[in-house]
Automatic annotation (TrEMBL):
It holds the Pfam family HATPase_c. The chain crosses the membrane at residues 20-42. This is Phosphate regulon sensor protein PhoR. It comes from the Bacteria. It is found in: Cell membrane. Its main location: membrane. Signal peptide: none annotated. One of its GO terms (molecular function) is protein histidine kinase activity. Member of the two-component regulatory system PhoR/PhoB involved in the phosphate regulon genes expression. PhoR may function as a membrane-associated protein kinase that phosphorylates PhoB in response to environmental signals. Keywords: ATP-binding, Cell membrane, Kinase, Membrane, Nucleotide-binding, Phosphate transport, Phosphoprotein, Transferase, Transmembrane, Transmembrane helix, Transport, Two-component regulatory system. It comes from Modicisalibacter luteus. It catalyses: ATP + protein L-histidine = ADP + protein N-phospho-L-histidine. The keyword Kinase applies.
Amino acid sequence: MYYWTNELWRLAYLVGGLGLLGWVLGEPGWGLAAGLGLFVFIHLRHLRQLYVWLALHPGQEPPAGTGVWGDLFDRLYRYQKGQRQTQERLRDIIRRVQDSSEAMRDSVVMLDSRGDLEWWNSAAERMLGLQTRHDRGQHITNLLRDPRFIEYFNARDYREPLTLPSPIREDLFLQFQITLYGDNERLVMARDITRLHRLEQMRRDFVANVSHELRTPLTVLAGYLETYGEYADQLPPRWQRGISQMQQQTSRMQNLVTDLLLLSRLETDHQVEQAEPIDIAGLLDSVRQDAESLSGGRHTLRVDVTETARLSGVEQEIRSAISNLAFNAVRYTPEDSTITLRWRAYRNGAALEVEDDGEGIDPVHIPRLTERFYRVDKGRSAETGGTGLGLAIVKHVLLRHDAQLEIDSRPGEGALFRCAFPDERLVKDTGESAQTASRRMAQAAGSGQLPQ
């Protein structure tokens, strides 16, 4: 406001003074016009100085100005200086981030919203083979062409990392983790886990080899103990008790070795057998009969089938998974409990479920239930006769069938173990309508005879 008032006074002085001079000379109109022209000339001159300064010499001191122009030059200079300082701080932060990324052993790759390469550190050049001269601006899937990475990248579900061999070295194993940030931009990090991968492979080989080597001596022991058991009535009572206990422990060891070998095969054999349509209703009825034999009449087992579609998969593996869930329910639920084996529609696919009304599980244990040898109640391990590998086997079987294991349980409210399969794994029955098939299965289940 102060400078605006000064400009008005300056205009008044120029126009008034030259107008008065023109009135003295007998040309007041020309005097007024000369005053206005001079005022406009002064502003145009300052405007040209501003343009030359901003366009040609923005880094130099601002030109000298009077009145409102001097204040404008000073304000623009201070603003420009502040912007330069801010930009310099940002550049310094970017340099520090890049320097710290360069110091990392892990690969760091920055992608724009389209998935094109923007920047990467030197570790990415060593691990992924990226080249600054040729690859900048390329889409990430043009360089990392493994179908598993492309599927992982496009799925946009980055909660779990992806392990793949390096695209330039087959003996180098990398763990990829993608993070979304900003305006749909992505940060790809690749970590060298070759040593961990080799240790894990050594562990698997060790477990598989030891388990395989134990089968023969355990078979010999079981055979002799069975022979001795046939003549147990001729032995002293103390020997009878010892032979009985040895038979129980040998049988337990054989079950453990069998589960270890199965788990080792599921972990190491990435080639899934040819999938075939599985009659889930018949499979559940067979598992129910096996579970009833294990229960010895202490539990009530039911089969509930409402989904008409069959499941595409390896029947032996699916049987192993559902049997483990059913046998666990028999072992860990009290007498007179009801155990239900269910096949029903779930979300966009279908689910195999094993539900019981037993004691339930504390939610704190649920995230670790699929770990090998993890037990909720370690004091009951010998009593139940389980190996502690059942849920680990279930987890790996489901991974091989594109499915997920969901566990829902609360103390005192029973437990529900759900194997959720996607729609791609279902084989629709085109021979009859879904309503007809559902009615037929419901009638068969009500009569106790499931369709085969």
